[in-house]
Design brief:
Domain DUF418: 277-443
InterPro entries: Bact_Transport_Assoc, DUF418
Radius of gyration: 23 Å
Transmembrane segments: 34-52, 72-99, 136-155, 162-182, 259-283, 295-314, 334-357, 378-397, 403-424
Distance between the termini: 25 Å
Number of domains: 1
Strand content: under 5%
Number of strands: 0
Largest sheet: none
Keywords: Membrane, Transmembrane, Transmembrane helix
Structural class: mainly alpha
Protein name: DUF418 domain-containing protein
Helix content: over 70%
């Protein structure tokens, strides 16, 4: 716990008002803000196709290595896909410790800390519902983060080794459930193919076979839509607000209900891992440089070959259905958590070494500002992307090539950085961070930077 105490500023017990106020600027952990900023910007690399591209858009270039879209997709998948979300989840877990530990060190009782924390996360869940159903982003993470946080609270006192062990167990459980889900989908597919073969031979179809056919068609409509379904969804996404909502909201609701039990374990495990790494001092740069250099070397030397193999293996098949038809096990899915963690640890190690070396201070200052305003910047991603791509905005949905999306990403990153730097010159918190904190403490918080929060 020594590293945890060093990372979190100790507050005197006689300053009871601080229990109900946010952290002061001077008490922020800059490394955590920087990592959060990197993760937030990196997440847009994976999210923007969801805003801009029709379903199965990669089918057009998945087996064409000479295509520029293929090369962009390969680069982003290898280095960033899943890694940025993992980092964001890990930093979220660290944030839970920072929030609760500071309140406890300030003298807050158990129920005071619990009440503040659950109010905070209850609002986060509500923000997630608004994000998905009003702003219409199908890939919202605020809701699931809030749900995970309700569980996470009760693990915060565990020793790092226990947190790591539970995180690994949850990761393994997530991998197993993923394979079971894949097996279930594949069995539906094979049963459907049997029915199709029987129909071609003009054999009578039983009620069970008809139900199997219907089950697969419903599954395919949701996960592997055909061209007609893709064209229909594309027309909706190019329509007005009501039409876009008619496509997004049902899927968002399923993610928040039916599929929550499948998706929660990955996020929860990564948050617990973030807690362990924070307590060990890894995320705050408190370890010796040689440790980060070793982790960097191990992470990249093992992680990159694994993810490249996974890419190669998956791209031996022309599309998802061809993979399902022939592969009883998804090897890439089994390797995914391994390569992802190796690479995210390596990425963090690189960033920490650069911070420790004191290089690119202006860049890290900008990244820290983005991370300090991560909530506002995350919602800003959605506002900008929906207005650029959805039909009630500029209507560019499906009109750009995959590689062209990353010019848009660079533009949005520029807006994030300038917005964060300029805003924080005058204000203590980002606008949504301020709203969230005011709701958490049930009191309007000082916003202007001239009023320093103690």
């Amino acid at each position: 716990m020594a590293n945890l105490s060093a990372a979190v500023a100790t507050l005197p017990n006689d300053q009871s008002p601080v229990l109900y106020k946010p952290v002061a600027q001077r008490e922020r952990i800059k490394t955590i803000d920087i990592l959060r900023g990197v993760a937030l910007l990196g997440i847009l690399l994976m999210n923007i196709p969801g805003f801009a591209m029709p379903d199965r858009f990669t089918d057009a270039f998945r087996n064409d290595p000479e295509n520029i879209n293929y090369r962009f997709h390969f680069f982003i998948t290898v280095l960033f896909e899943g890694k940025m979300r993992a980092l964001f989840s890990m930093v979220f877990g660290a944030g839970v410790l920072i929030f609760t530990t500071r309140k406890e060190q300030a003298g807050a009782g158990k129920w005071a800390v619990t009440g503040l924390y659950y109010r905070r996360m209850g609002w986060l869940i509500l923000f997630g519902l608004i994000h998905a159903h009003v702003l219409l982003w199908l890939g919202d993470i605020l809701y699931i983060y809030g749900v995970c946080a309700l569980i996470l609270f009760w693990f915060r006192k565990l020793k790092p080794a226990w947190l790591l062990g539970i995180a690994l167990a949850l990761g393994s459980f997530d991998a197993i459930t993923g394979q079971l889900f894949y097996h279930h989908i594949r069995e539906q597919r094979l049963a459907y193919l049997d029915v199709v073969a029987a129909e071609k031979l003009n054999k009578p179809i039983t009620k069970t076979q008809q139900e199997a056919k219907t089950a697969w068609l419903e599954t395919a409509k949701e996960f592997i839509p055909d061209k007609a379904e893709i064209d229909k969804n594309t027309r909706l996404m190019r329509g007005n607000y009501t039409e876009v909502a008619s496509h997004v909201r049902p899927f968002a609701f399923k993610i928040e209900t039916n599929y929550l039990i499948l998706s929660i374990w990955d996020a929860l495990g990564l948050m617990l891992l973030g807690m362990a790494l924070f307590k060990w001092g890894f995320l705050t740069g408190q370890l010796p440089p040689r440790i980060y250099r070793r982790l960097l070397a191990v992470g990249y030397s093992l992680g990159i070959p694994i993810v490249v193999f996974s890419w190669w293996y998956g791209h031996q098949f022309p599309n998802t259905t061809a993979f399902l038809d022939s592969q009883p096990v998804s090897i890439s899915s089994l390797l995914y958590p391994i390569q992802r963690m190796l690479l995210v640890i390596a990425h963090v190690s690189v960033l920490i070494l650069l911070i420790q070396a004191g290089v690119a201070k202006g860049v890290f200052r900008a990244l820290g500002a983005v991370g300090q305003m991560a909530f506002s910047n995350y919602i800003l991603h959605t506002i900008l992307c929906t207005l650029i791509f959805f039909g009630y905005g500029l209507g560019y949905f499906g009109h750009l090539q995959y590689y062209q999306l990353y010019a848009v990403v660079l533009g949005i990153w520029t807006v994030n950085i300038l917005f964060s730097l300029l805003w924080l010159q005058r204000f203590q918190f980002g606008p949504l961070e301020w709203v969230w904190r005011s709701l958490t403490y049930w009191k309007r918080q000082p916003l202007r930077r001239s009023v320093e929060i103690e």
